[in-house]
Amino acid sequence: MLAALTAVFLCQLAGETLVVAAGLPIPGPVFGMVILFVFFVVNGGIPASIATIGDGLLGHLSILFVPAGVGILQHGARLEAEGLQIGATLIASTVLTIGVTGLVMRLLGRSEAKDEASGNG
């Protein structure tokens, strides 16, 4: 179990190191997850020990929202002053994301239907 947790943290460290060294504009932990994903693809699946660690982390995911909640409380005055703009931006970006996702799904569904109709699927 400790080896699996160490592997996950080493992927995060590797991602952080590569992002800082290369000056990439993405978060290090995200790049670390890409490294971990590539490991899973090359390995042919997720090892049981890492799956157990992942389930444990997901079970306590709500703890990760505590810093965000503290940040919201800390910036209450700013939210009061700019709340309407922030709310409008959140609503617009959510609607845009749902729309783009729907269009992508429609396009992918059409190409899948064409493949099935031609006997390739």
From TrEMBL:
GO terms for cellular component: plasma membrane. It is a multi-pass membrane protein. Its main location: membrane. It comes from the Bacteria. The keyword Hydrolase applies. Signal peptide: none annotated. The keyword Nuclease does not apply. It is found in: Cell membrane. InterPro entries: LrgA/CidA. GO terms for molecular function: hydrolase activity. Keywords: Cell membrane, Hydrolase, Membrane, Transmembrane, Transmembrane helix. The chain crosses the membrane at residues 31-50, 57-77, 83-104. This is Putative effector of murein hydrolase LrgA, UPF0299 family. It comes from Fulvimarina manganoxydans. The lineage of its organism: Bacteria, Pseudomonadati, Pseudomonadota, Alphaproteobacteria, Hyphomicrobiales.
